[in-house]
Specification:
Strand content: 15-25%
Helix content: 25-40%
Shape: globular
CATH superfamily of the largest domain: DNA ligase/mRNA capping enzyme
Number of domains: 3
Radius of gyration: 26 Å
Number of helices: 20
Length: 561
Amino acid sequence: MKDFAALCAALRATRATSRKVELVASYLPTLDDASLPIATRFLTGRPFAARDERTLSVGWASLLRTATAMFADLDPEILRASFRAIGDMGETFGLLQRGRARAATPSVVEVGDALERLAAARKAADKQRLLDGLLPGLDPSVLKETVKLIVGAQRIGLSALLLEQAIARASDLPLDDVKRATLLCGDLGEVALRARHGALGGAALALFHPLGFQLAGTYTAGDALPWERILAEEKLDGIRGQAHVAPAYPGATARVALFSRSLDDVTGAFPEIAERLARLPISLVADGEILAFAAGRALPFARLQRRLGRKKVDEELIREVPSTFVLYDVLAWNGVLVIDRPLRERRALLESLPLPDGVLLSAATRPRDADDLEKLFERALANGNEGLMLKDELQPYTPGKRGRGWLKYKKARATLDVVVTAVEPGHGRRAGLLSDVTFAVRAADGSLRNIGKAYSGLSDTEILETTKTFRRLTETIYGGRVRAVRPEVVLEVAFDGIQRSARHKSGFALRFPRIVRLRPDKPVAEIDTLERVVELYALLAGDDTPPEAAATRAADASDAE
């Protein structure tokens, strides 16, 4: 585990992805067969495989109790203040452990076993006992990485793709073979071991771990398209969903799981969809959209939002916000991965499927030319949808990739002029630059009310310049990352919709906001108002609440915070 900790430190010290791959590729061959799959999983930032549903369920309070016992010579209030100031449990444990007469360096296998026992413990007292037995004697660097794994905050800048590249290099195997095996089994630890022994071909499809989603490029009016093979589907205003279905058979009941775009399991929020999909006669992995749906029509996203983020929903909420699943692609069919087949064949499979009531197949239209496409686009907007998805029926399904096989055609519904109130560093090549901005509109009383956060839209040059500005405007730093700034930088932001939100003081949040441009020409006094937001919300979300009442409700939500 000491070598693992040294690797993590080296990975954090470099931003070059090629160097990260080189470091991991050199490390993996040093591990024995027992350690290799465990260490590889640890490099994903998780104690277990992606397909493994176990969780450690260890919170701040438990770790703080362990820390209080470990560092009994420190005043508990000083200890708590240290954790708050640093904002990273692993870093804090490691720093506090330095210079103390404790230097246990367990193996990767021993730490893996300890984390398995931690996941298996159901009682809080048992988890606490295991933590108290695991952490106190560890070497500072090992302690830091172990705690980071426990809390899910490793952050070494190593994506799954980079790890796959490292496995391929360490085993001298084609990257595509490694990626294919990962897609099938959902366990990079197993893939690393199979790659070492030349057994990637034996990886079998495992359901109930989320596969990567096909990503879409952007279509701009006037772009050339191969019209003879383009299918247009209305871009639905729901959430992307991946359905895994294992049908019932003698001795076993049907099983269904729904995963979101963020690869979270959202089955509990949509039990009626799971119940319907369980009636399908074959096993499959399908891509589609979860929608609020009633009377043969999709409901605004604002309605669906009430179902999101819930582990369970009651019958009353299901009646108030009925949902459906719209299929538009298939990744696996009867235990066979079909992503390499052209869309034309995958679509034919879906069309052959007897769909239960409440499960739909997306309608696909073949536009003849750009003029025809514009008519379809306007019809999609009239139907309450976001725009169009344009798909080349000869292309395969490429999980995790963005290309020309799928193109989204949307137009910004509106823009707002807003002022930046907080910033924080980005990730990847923008780590260290203040590229993530929180912004606000002006309320009737002149106060600023946050309404969203944007990560994209500015050029690298603009981000460098605004980073300097935001550092100068910084008033307070929270948790070592988030900077409250003087509200002087005005932006124009575009967005796809507005939804109610208890998170922001405005009472609303913009959907998919992106920065259109900096507005140095506009004073803060002239940014858009909360009243304007309420008007747009009523227009875009189809809310029949009078603007005055909605504004009052937003103000009440702000006061409640």
